[in-house]
Write a structure and sequence with these properties.
The structure is a homodimer of 536-residue chains.
Chain A: H1 11-20, E1 25-29, E2 32-35, H2 36-52, E3 60-64, H3 69-80, E4 84-88, H4 94-104, E5 106-112, H5 113-118, E6 129-133, E7 146-148, H6 149-154, E8 173-178, E9 188-192, H7 193-207, E10 214-216, H8 224-227, H9 229-235, E11 239-241, H10 248-257, E12 262-265, H11 267-275, E13 287-290, H12 297-305, E14 309-316, E15 321-325, H13 330-335, H14 338-345, E16 350-351, E17 359-361, E18 382-386, E19 394-395, H15 399-405, E20 411-419, E21 425-430, E22 435-437, E23 440-442, H16 444-452, E24 457-467, E25 471-480, H17 487-495, E26 506-509, H18 523-534
Parallel strand pairs in A: 1-11, 3-4, 3-5, 5-6, 6-7, 10-11, 10-12, 12-13, 13-14, 25-26
Antiparallel strand pairs in A: 1-2, 8-9, 9-19, 14-15, 15-16, 17-18, 18-20, 20-21, 22-23, 24-25
Helix pairs in contact in A: 1-2, 1-9, 2-3, 7-9
Chain lengths: 536, 536
């Protein structure tokens, strides 16, 4: 790097926002509202307190909590010291939190009182202290052994250090995010300042953030640092509105009162939004960005009925959240009916502006190890691979796992899909979810979309169940929108859409589907349920 | 840089646009319209022809011409080979072009026929060939010794190389742009792929480019690579509309027919636009970005009357064009009258999102060489300094000049100004233009703005003239909007605005002011004129 370059870091975004828009609203969390000058001050104050608590460059600091002004602040205060933030999923068990603290060598844990309380008997290895941030109503649990936030801040009393909004090396780790680890132990995904900066700019562009944007935090900040929007919203000097729990009533109240312009979430969040009793047509523009699963035609039409604009993005923890976007083509809105549009919107799309290409490659590379793209024919299945500044530095403490994930020079997602002739990628399945029935691959997502194209279907999941004859057979779990519909009717609908060998053997109706804390459907649970009942 | 990073380059923008929006209109130049697939194809074809003509990584390729599809293509084709583009100001004399070709070690010159013709007797040193691009009507002059563009392209016949939209090193030089050199020889300012990429993203953000933007090329592409919008418009997969000459009639025809959403230019371009007989209120949104001189209240109000949105940016050749932006504050539109707004809009503002801070520093650094900021009081004058990814790699072949420009670690602009309490910078003068009268500094810009606040004043320039008693005294050159006004009336108006010692001794009325090819007023010419007439 040339001597004259300045290392890329999202810290610059907060520094700039505080300089250019000091009096503008930056953060709302319950009754508290901070301007950008105050947000920057709180960040400097937290950085000084972290420093006074012994945090040094290269350390890891864990944060266990719901979305809050403090968690947002930690996204800047921790990196300001050259340390790495470990934003931990607040739904994990004490054992899982313990594993993450140990693995990341966290020296402190900050977090919500009720969550820290659960850790009281847990071995947190090198964690020297548990620091309790106030609840949204300002109250504190003062659970045994935790340090109240005010005491923590008081450690830096008299210190007037102003840290520069800079980093010494743009490849320094800014955050470590743990994979959900549906198989095996969670992995520590390392993000760099450079990657966070570029991904945040990509979010600014694709989501269309500007100084008058108002962002509602329906997405957990602990999920890939809120897809880098913890930094992107600040880049635009826009407003962060914290939301601690995704409830329809609260969302609608804030959407209306603050005239929210942007929010993100898994399809389940959109379902909560659309099915709340308070749901109504919006009187201001709202962009909703979704990921985690392709939005179903029903969800798409419900979101449209609200008057919101829906954007579908795709990525993984390893790609800072979104890497790809289903970028709308001007012709879609003019030339296609809503069913055709919905089927295009369900694709994962193309690499974002700040990403590289999204490729789909064959299982077998060429003899020299070069990855070979599948034919862009919409039918040859391969694995989605990604690379570049939008992809992690690697797995912490796992060079072998990192090397394996990057074989051929590209990160292997474990997602299987096709490349359409227009260059848009569509996922057909997670490698681990694909059903092999009589030697044929069945894409659970294809079957799900066939089911979801029926208007009565609101939520859907298809899994493979053991079958003595075929090896595996598809089984579907359905949540309806309240309409009465029989298994036979639905199966007839599906038969008209896909090949008969892909049609599920059985459909089970549910009132809800099990999801992860980030809104993804837990197919492993459904597989277990199904296995319990049909057993080989 | 980590092994997993991909070098930043604006080449990715064209690669992505061609992948994601192959059928979308990319370039219009006269009767020709290219889609993004065609734009990418033309670029690959030009790159192959350059390669067949002996261009190698590290070479410089000069281009001498007005805005055209070919000049735009060269912004991608030349860097695709790892070579550097030298886009030469088309108004320079053959001797100046010769100097630039020699200094940059250009191996080829591409350009417009009539411009290459003027070079026929000129020593171009290492330039092996002059390649003539077709005129907008497709015609060719075939001037002696030039190679027709079709012959040039034919050299790569049968070659089907597809260059990757990548660069090996993000610090590689992508372009060399020569300063206008009002004093001494022009300097060769080196831009890197990294800087061009980041500055282009900054333009995308601040100008608000999106896929449905339509950009009119009123700004010369040879001016700081069109402020990096040669790359930024492509980043958004938006439409480039080439304009070879800035004429009111043509501009208005294209503005209306193509529903242009964005254009850039010096205030003189805005004046041409606003004073054309075809001028009328726009029926679609248009953002006009101006730089080179602060827009006067008259220009601001005329642009507003057209229904366009005006944005003022600031930078130099050394900063890839714009480094700073007068970012509008929400309160300006609601709390201030139009005169107050105009005075704020005339400021140079704050560093862009992808830039660092814009600082104003004292002439004397601290003993250890650290630069000291002036007080943010709106009155202490200092020099504007900049640094980071938005500032050049250095002057080609001039390490001493580069070191001097970067003393204290920041690039010294030569512009003098103040820092206002709100953090916005305002230029008061070029260091070389400031008038020293009786030991007092007089800012020519301050005097100009006092004159420009009179509604009859359309164009204005103030220069220092030698004075036996005071050393120098200000003199004004005025272009009116057609209203009859006397020197005495105007002087009375100015006296009500600024201190009496700053009031010009004389006003000369002109029908136009001498400008550079980039629309800046040539004060040196006015000083010479004034000197001729008042002589000491």
């Amino acid at each position: 790097m040339s001597d004259l370059n300045v290392p890329l870091t999202p810290l610059r975004f907060l520094g700039r926002a505080a300089e250019v828009h000091p009096g503008k609203r930056a953060v709302i969390d319950g009754d508290r509202t901070w301007t950008y000058a105050q947000f920057a001050d709180h960040t400097q104050q937290m950085a000084r307190a972290l420093r006074a608590s012994g945090v040094r460059a290269g350390d890891a600091v864990a944060f266990l909590g719901a979305n809050s002004a403090e968690l947002l602040t930690a996204h800047y205060a921790v990196p300001l010291l050259g340390a790495a933030l470990v934003a931990v999923n607040s739904r994990l068990s004490p054992e899982e939190v313990s594993y993450i603290c140990k693995h990341s060598s966290a020296v402190l844990v900050l977090g919500d009182g009720h969550l820290l309380e659960q850790l009281s008997g847990t071995d947190l290895a090198g964690v020297r202290e548990r620091i309790e941030i106030p609840a949204q109503d300002g109250s504190s649990r003062q659970a045994g052994g935790t340090v109240p936030f005010t005491d923590f801040l008081a450690r830096a009393a008299g210190d007037d250090t102003q840290y520069q909004w800079e980093v010494d090396d743009e490849d320094r780790v800014i955050a470590i995010n743990y994979t959900s680890g549906t198989t095996g132990r969670p992995k520590g995904v390392m993000y760099s300042h450079r990657g966070a900066y570029l991904n945040a700019l990509g979010e600014v562009y694709h989501q269309g953030f500007a100084a008058d944007s108002r962002y509602l935090w329906t997405l957990p900040m602990f999920h890939c640092n809120g897809w880098c929007t913890t930094w992107a919203v600040t880049a635009a000097s826009a407003l962060h509105v914290c939301l601690r729990a995704v409830r329809g009533e609260t969302m609608w109240k804030i959407l209306d009162e603050e005239e929210i312009t942007h929010m993100c979430g898994a399809p389940t969040v959109l379902t909560t939004l659309a099915s709340a009793p308070q749901a109504h047509r919006l009187e201001h523009p709202l962009t909703i960005v979704t990921a985690g699963a392709p939005p179903t035609p029903t969800v798409i039409s419900r979101i449209r009925e609200l008057g919101a604009h829906l954007l579908h993005v795709y990525g993984l923890t390893e790609t800072y959240g979104p890497y790809a976007v289903c970028e709308p083509q001007p012709s879609w809105a003019t030339d296609l009916d809503s069913e055709q549009q919905a089927s295009l919107l369900a694709r994962q799309g193309v690499g974002m502006l700040t990403s590289e290409r999204l490729r789909v490659v064959r299982g077998e590379p060429s003899p020299d190890g070069t990855l070979i793209d599948v034919s862009p024919n919409g039918s040859e299945m391969g694995e989605l691979v990604m690379r570049g500044n939008s992809v992690m530095k690697g797995y912490l403490g796992d060079p072998d796992g990192t090397a394996d994930a990057f074989r051929g020079g590209w990160f292997h997602s474990g997602d299987l899909g096709v490349m359409h002739p227009d260059g848009y990628v569509q996922i057909l399945d997670r490698a681990k979810d694909v059903i092999i029935s009589g030697g044929e691959n069945i894409s659970t997502i294809e079957v799900e979309q066939a089911l979801a194209s029926h208007p009565a279907v609101f939520g859907v999941a298809v899994v493979g169940t053991p079958d003595p004859k075929w090896g595996e057979r598809p089984m579907a779990f359905i949540v309806t929108d309240g309409t009465e519909i029989s298994e036979a009717e639905l199966l007839a609908h599906v038969r008209s859409k896909i090949a008969s060998y892909k049609v599920p053997d059985r459909i089970e109706f549910r009132t809800q589907l099990p999801t992860t804390s980030t809104g993804k459907i837990r197919k492993s649970v459904l597989r277990d349920n199904a296995g319990d009942r049909v057993g080989p």
